[in-house]
C-alpha cells in the first residue's frame, strides 16, 4: 500500500524547503499517485498567487527569447572554437604510419621477413620435389613387381 503525503508536505516541496532525499521520494511518488498529484497541483496554484505579476507579457517573452538565442549563439561559438587535439587528426595518423614504415625499412625488418619467407618457400619446394621423386620410384618398383608376379603366375600354369 502506498503512503500518501499531506498538503503541507507538498507546499514544502513547492517552496523547496525539503532535503534532497525527501524531494526525490515525493517526485517518484507523483508518477504513481493521482491523489497526491492533485494535492501538488493545488499547492502550486496556491504559490502562484505569491509570485509577482508580469506587467507586459510580450516584452517579458521577447526578453526570454533573446536570452535563449544569445545562449545558443555562445554555445555555437564555443563549439567552433573548440579544436580537436593534434593526435586526433587524420594527418597525424598518416604521419605516424609513414614514420613507422621508414623506421622499419631503414632497420631492415622487411628485408629479413622477405628472406625468411623465401627460405621457407625453398624448403617446401625441395620437399615437394623429393616426395614426387619418391612416389615415381615407388610406382615404378610397384609396376615391376606386378610384372614379375604376372610372369611367375604364367609359369606356374
Task: Draw up the topology in text.
Layout: H1 7-14, H2 20-30, H3 34-48, H4 57-81, H5 90-107, H6 109-156
Helix pairs in contact: 1-3
> What is the helix content?
over 70%
Low-confidence stretches: none
Helix-strand category: mainly alpha
Which sheet architecture does the biggest sheet show? none
Number of domains: 2
Q: Kindly provide the radius of gyration, computed on alpha-carbon positions and rounded to a whole number of angstroms.
A: 45 Å
Tally the helices: 6
Organism: Niallia nealsonii
Protein name: Zinc-finger domain-containing protein
Keywords: Membrane, Transmembrane, Transmembrane helix
Transmembrane segments: 91-114
How would you describe what is shown here?
- This protein is mainly α and 157 residues long.
- Helix 1 packs across helix 3.
- The chain contains six helices and no strands.
- 4% of the residues are buried.
- The chain has helices spanning 7-14, 20-30, 34-48, 57-81, 90-107, 109-156.
- It is elongated, with a radius of gyration of 45 Å.
- It folds into two domains: 1-52, no CATH class; 90-156.
- 80% of the residues lie in helices and 0% in strands.
- The longest helix is centred in the last third of the chain and has 48 residues, at 109-156.
- The termini are far apart.
